[in-house]
Design goal:
By secondary structure, the protein is an alpha/beta fold. The protein folds into 2 domains: 268 residues, Rossmann fold (3-Layer(aba) Sandwich); 190 residues, 3-Layer(aba) Sandwich (Rossmann fold). The protein is built from 17 helices and 18 strands. The strands form 3 sheets. Strands 1, 2, 3, 4, 5, 6, 7, 8, 11 and 12 form a 10-stranded mixed beta sheet that branches. The longest helix has 19 residues. It is elongated and about 70 Å long. The two termini are 15 Å apart.
Length: 482
């Protein structure tokens, strides 16, 4: 299976969110399953070819594409992954990519990613390489399915290529003025009220991609269903409903090397199922690090998150005084919206014995909180996949989550399903529902036998990329059968 993996972010080259992790891990896992994978990525200014040991592709020098009717020249760098059929191609065009940031508000933001997608096609043509699957990710590469069906339908090279568009976050839709359609060299005839190129008076890369891709997926099964409702659909729910038979959910995997309590180099005491007693030593280290006193066996509740509305922290202030009466301590790590940062800072000042708030981005501390906490709280309003609940489960840290997206697909409530429960789940997005469930968790905490059972279930769960990559492979096969 030959896969062209088009992405605007990939670790370690560029990252603003989960897409970067998925690009790196999924492509590698696919190559391990026998796929031949070519990743395509822009050469942003922040990405120095020397630092990453990239090779200049002589055979792809000075290629040209036409953007908004003007010729644009570019070069290509590449990197081969030793021992794997995995190559990354970097599209080098300073005019578009030598900017302050990966994404910009510049007036040619549309052109930057139109160019990127045309350049991908141009390189494939030059290499005479027919991908079986064109795997696109989010709005920045969502026009490729449209290109294959309209702009490049003349090219027999792509006659057998099928496309998959993965939706990592529906909030970002690549919305531009209708003139963008012309810049992309696409026919205006598809722009009319409610037509495929029209989205509330604009042109949206994402909407067009959703309508033209052979198959679609998002990063959890529940989120795949949720986005077909007005509450979660960000205006695209109607469009997504028209594609419901082609829309799948595949849970992201986690990096099981970096996030593994048996081998984690960022925590002071490593542990596994047979050495679970060392987890308590991480808890003691975490208390010391966070400046929290021992609390007579009360559990420690951890939070690591971007402090933004999506993550559900507006549920906390209305019940904060009640929460402070509970027998528990809190350690919060995060940055984000001022209102939440200030809320947690204030809470820590008022209750220094109970709450520690560390308002920064700190990967090492994120590991320690994951290992050292007894409970991990994620009350998200929506959560396409979520990683922290999977980390917590594998670290024997019992998650308390809202039943949405990937949280609903990975955490099973112990009272609802005593035979399989690995955490605590609430449905209503309300302070009362959160309060009720936290109380339930704290009531259960003294039952050490039950708690241990929950911990072990989480620690045994397989969230590796291997499993997810296998599901992507099956989806590729479905697309090819279309
Ligand atoms: P999202 O992509 O919506 O932020 P995820 O749960 O998918 O949510 O991934 C969040 C990732 O970012 C996790 O790896 C988490 O540990 C990390 N993270 C978030 N905030 C911080 C922080 N302040 N310090 C360290 N790591 C953080």
């Amino acid at each position: 299976m030959k896969v062209c993996f088009a992405t605007s972010e990939c670790v370690p080259y560029a990252k603003t969110g989960g897409l970067a992790d998925v690009s790196a891990s999924l492509s590698r896992a696919l190559a391990r399953l026998g796929c031949k994978v070519k990743i395509f990525h822009p050469l942003y200014r922040s990405l120095n070819p020397k630092d990453h040991h990239l090779t200049f592709a002589e055979e792809l020098k000075n290629l040209t594409v036409f953007i908004a009717g003007k010729p644009v020249r570019f070069n290509v760098w590449y990197k081969k992954e030793p021992g794997l059929a995995l190559e990354t191609y970097f599209i080098d065009c300073p005019m578009y990519f030598a900017r302050e940031a990966i994404y910009t508000d510049d007036t040619d933001e549309d052109e930057r990613f139109i160019f990127f997608q045309d350049a991908i096609i141009r390189v494939l043509q030059q290499l005479v390489w027919t991908p079986d699957i064109m795997h696109c990710n989010d709005w920045q590469t969502a026009l490729l399915p449209v290109y294959l069906k309209l702009k490049y339908s003349w090219d027999r090279l792509f006659a057998s290529t099928r496309s998959l568009l993965t939706l990592h976050n529906l909030e970002y839709q690549g919305k531009f003025s209708p003139q963008t359609i012309g810049k992309a060299g696409l026919p205006m005839e598809h722009y009319y009220p409610t037509g495929p190129f029209e989205f509330y008076g604009s042109f949206s890369f994402l909407k067009a991609g959703i309508l033209f891709a052979d198959l679609l997926n998002t990063v959890s099964e529940t989120y795949a269903r949720e986005i077909q409702t007005p509450e979660y659909g960000a205006g695209l729910d109607g469009v997504l409903r028209t594609r419901k038979d082609d829309l799948y959910g595949i849970l992201n995997g986690i990096d099981t090397v970096a996030w593994n309590p048996r081998s984690d180099t960022l925590i002071p005491y490593r542990y596994g199922i047979k050495t679970l007693k060392f987890k308590a030593q991480n808890t003691a280290s975490l208390r010391a690090r966070a400046g929290l006193p021992g609390d007579g066996g009360a559990p420690l509740i951890g939070i690591v998150a971007r402090l933004v509305h999506q993550k559900g922290f507006d549920l906390l202030p209305p019940i904060w005084s009640q929460l402070m009466e509970l027998p528990a301590q809190w350690v919060v790590l995060g940055t984000g919206d001022r209102e939440f940062e200030d809320f947690f800072r204030r809470a820590a000042r008022r209750h220094p014995q109970k709450v520690a708030a560390i308002i920064e981005f700190n990967n090492e501390l994120a590991h320690l909180i994951t290992a050292g906490s007894d409970l991990f709280l994620m009350p998200s309003k929506y959560e396409p996949c979520g990683l922290n609940q999977m980390y917590s489960l594998n670290y024997g840290t019992v998650p308390v989550v809202r039943k949405t997206g990937g949280l609903a697909d990975t955490v099973i409530d112990i009272d609802e399903n005593p035979a399989k429960g690995n955490g605590f789940v609430f449905g209503d997005y309300s302070p009362a529902a959160l309060m009720f469930t936290l109380r339930r968790a704290l009531d259960r905490f003294p039952d050490k036998a039950l708690w241990r059972k929950m911990m072990l279930r989480g620690m045994r769960a397989d969230f590796s990329w291997k499993r997810s990559a296998q599901q992507y492979l099956e989806l590729y096969q479905k697309a090819l059968a279309k």
